[in-house]
Structure formats: structure tokens, C-alpha cells
Predict the 3D structure of the following.
Amino acid sequence: MAQRYACPTVLIVLALGLLSLPAGAQIEDNVLGLSDENLEGYVSPLSTGLSGTMNAAIFRTGYVPQQRFELSVGLAAMAIGYDDEDRLYRPTDPEGFQSLEQKDVPTIVGPSEGVLVPGESNLTRAYPGGFDLEGFEIAVPQLSIGSYFGTRAIVRYVAMDLGDADLGDFSYVGFGLQHSITQWFSHAPVDLAAGFLIQDFEIGEDIVAASAMHLNLTASRQFGILQPYVGLGYDSMELAVKAEDEEDPELSIDFTLEDESNAHLTLGLLARVAVVDVFFEFNAAAATGFALGFDLGTMGGASHEQATGY
């Protein structure tokens, strides 16, 4: 069943993030019979959505102490919006079919109603509808632990049975490191750190599988309880779709979308009160979006004087 969600600011729990995911079994039904060219046109907005969300809200400070125990657990909710051009694509005629007119058809995030394209010799080609999504949202827990020689580890992990025959199992895991650059300079005007995160995302038994990598350079500075931060990064995303047709194995699909890579700009603000960090950020990457969330624990921003006073 198609689903529609358009209010990312209320995404503060993981369950709401999962609701925007298309049903696994229905994805299989929709992509069976599509050529590689049309598969790319159909699923590419999903790759954009995953890249724009999975690679956001990871690094929220440039301050990493050189030698101090810190532990933080929180939740990050990320959302992007789709433009009108993301909802339709122009299909390529498959072998043995010549269309009589050029028609745009739905992508995976487009209108739920399929389109029939008339062709020569009284043939008709059916293209599947999408899931009618105005945006893509996901929320994930994040653990940060450190620091040793100015380095902290970051882990994201979710694995669950969604209790739905269409969705099946869902898994999401990410691991990365962030290393202080400021510690090597005595008079840096801001706290600066470099980091990376590698992530894997899967729906069902490899029906949809995505791998992402995010490289990042984050600068921040503390002003009282507020800490603005800026991130410059690089994202890469690989998306694979598998679908099996038990009645006609020749229609089965094992398709990997060409890697998508792009620059990533983050502008954010973090507020720290006691052991709670609350943050909000804007991201311009594969798609434009926003992220918000919180962390509980000992990790947090520090004044520039503290950061350089090792």
C-alpha cells in the first residue's frame, strides 16, 4: 500500500522513520520485468533519499578530547524532500517494443497509479506506480565512545523483524571514527576534527540493500551552552535491488545502481544542558534536508580554550 509522509519535524522515534519505507514484497512486484535502464530510472530517487538521510547527523562537534572517557547515546532523525522531477522518469523502450508516444512514468516515490504506454503492432507496455512519497525519513540510534589519542568511535545499529509479511526484516548498521585535528595546532581559531562512517542498510532478504560512506571535516566553537558547527564532507552510495519470479526465473532481477557520490555541506547548532545535547542541522548533499535529535551522556562540545588546553 502506498504511504505518504510530509512532516519530518515530528520524527523523533525510530518507528516513524520506518513507516516511510516501501514494502519489500511490493517492491519486488513493481520492479519485475523492468529493463536495467528503466530500473535505474525507477529506483534512483530511493538511492538519493537514502544517501541524503543515512549520511546526515553523524558528526555534530569538532571537539574531540585527547584523552578522556566519554560515552553518549542518542537518536538522530533525518529527512529529505522530493522535488517534482524525482517523481517521474522517461522510460526506455525495452527490446521488442516500440512506443507510439513519449510518456513519463512514476518512479518509486512517484504516483501510485501505474501507466500504460501504447506501442506498435497493438502492443501495450505497463509501467508500475510508485509509493507516493513526498519525502524520505529515517531515525536511528547512535552511540559515541572515546576518546583515545584524540579519537572517538561512533556506532549506529538497528536490527528488527518488523512483524509485516511485506516488510520482513530490517537492518541498519554503521561504524566510524572521528579524530581531533585541533590537538596538533596550538592556536587554531576553532575546534576541528576529521571523521568517516561506513553504513549498510537492508530491507527483507536483500530485496533492497544499500552501502554508504561519509567522509567529513567538522569545525565548531562553543559559546556558553550553544555550539554552532559546520561540516564539509563527501558521500558515496551504492544501492542494489533483488527480485525473484518463481514462475518465470528469467524475469528475476539482481541489479546494482551505479555508485552515487556528491559533496556534503552541513550547518548545525547544538545546545548542551547538563548531560543532554540537543541539535538541529541543515544538509545540502544528494538531497536537501534537515536533521534533529539528542544525545545523553558525557560527550559534548567544549570551549575552544578547553579544547586547546590539553
Remarks:
- The longest strand covers residues 226-243.
- Residues 8-94+104-118+125-307 form a domain with the Porin fold (CATH 2.40.160.20).
- The chain has one domain: 8-94+104-118+125-307.
- The radius of gyration is 22 Å.
